[in-house]
Amino acid sequence: MFTGIVEELGEITAVENLGDASRFRLRGPVVTEGAKHGDSIAVNGVCLTVVEHEGDEFTADVMAETLNRSSLGALAVGSRVNLERPTAVGTRLGGHIVQGHVDGTGQILERKPSDNWEIIKISLPADLARYVVEKGSITVDGVSLTVVDAGPDYFTISLIPTTLALTTLGIKQPGDPVNLEVDVIAKYVERLLAAKDAQHANDPANAVSKESAQ
């Protein structure tokens, strides 16, 4: 589990095409400290597994499903990426619960700079819109953020100078893709309510009540 608090801006140093997958080599001095084979590291919000670790670099394999459902397929040598190690038990949860399981991608639509912050408008896939609410949490490229405004096919976020300086959101431009992960709690609540409604509809007692009412 992650919290959406990016630890450092890393860099893609090599990309190997494996046919139905890709192997990335990434540089990140902070997240590689103490890293070992099998560890998890979030790359632009996608939970990847460390295959090899040498110095301040590590490699990770990315399967076709991940490449198709995230923006990682657009990465190339020199691309900057947000990196975060999993949260440790007993530490503060600085952002919100982030799984590193990307739900879809959005696109930067526009940027509105101000003196002390910047508003970014991002497109929102139709199947994710119901999970995004004003002042709720959303993960964008692995960054835990608060939704300012939630529209039918977009949402906006407000970024402080620290976020602009220390994450990819400071350099992404209109047209660039971003990974989106909605609040997992909203998805669980939806599933539980749907199951409850289905159970209620199939309860014979309810059918008898309806017949009596008629």
UniProtKB/TrEMBL annotation:
<comment type="function">
    <text>Catalyzes the dismutation of two molecules of 6,7-dimethyl-8-ribityllumazine, resulting in the formation of riboflavin and 5-amino-6-(D-ribitylamino)uracil.</text>
</comment>
<feature type="domain" description="Lumazine-binding">
    <location>
        <begin position="1"/>
        <end position="96"/>
    </location>
</feature>
<keyword id="KW-0686">Riboflavin biosynthesis</keyword>
<feature type="domain" description="Lumazine-binding">
    <location>
        <begin position="97"/>
        <end position="193"/>
    </location>
</feature>
<dbReference type="InterPro" id="IPR023366">
    <property type="entry name" value="ATP_synth_asu-like_sf"/>
</dbReference>
<protein>
    <recommendedName>
        <fullName>Riboflavin synthase</fullName>
        <ecNumber>2.5.1.9</ecNumber>
    </recommendedName>
</protein>
<comment type="subunit">
    <text>Homotrimer.</text>
</comment>
<dbReference type="GO" id="GO:0004746">
    <property type="term" value="F:riboflavin synthase activity"/>
</dbReference>
<dbReference type="Pfam" id="PF00677">
    <property type="entry name" value="Lum_binding"/>
</dbReference>
<keyword id="KW-0677">Repeat</keyword>
<dbReference type="InterPro" id="IPR017938">
    <property type="entry name" value="Riboflavin_synthase-like_b-brl"/>
</dbReference>
<feature type="repeat" description="Lumazine-binding">
    <location>
        <begin position="1"/>
        <end position="96"/>
    </location>
</feature>
<feature type="repeat" description="Lumazine-binding">
    <location>
        <begin position="97"/>
        <end position="193"/>
    </location>
</feature>
<dbReference type="InterPro" id="IPR026017">
    <property type="entry name" value="Lumazine-bd_dom"/>
</dbReference>
<dbReference type="InterPro" id="IPR001783">
    <property type="entry name" value="Lumazine-bd"/>
</dbReference>
<dbReference type="GO" id="GO:0009231">
    <property type="term" value="P:riboflavin biosynthetic process"/>
</dbReference>
<comment type="pathway">
    <text>Cofactor biosynthesis; riboflavin biosynthesis; riboflavin from 2-hydroxy-3-oxobutyl phosphate and 5-amino-6-(D-ribitylamino)uracil: step 2/2.</text>
</comment>
<keyword id="KW-0808">Transferase</keyword>
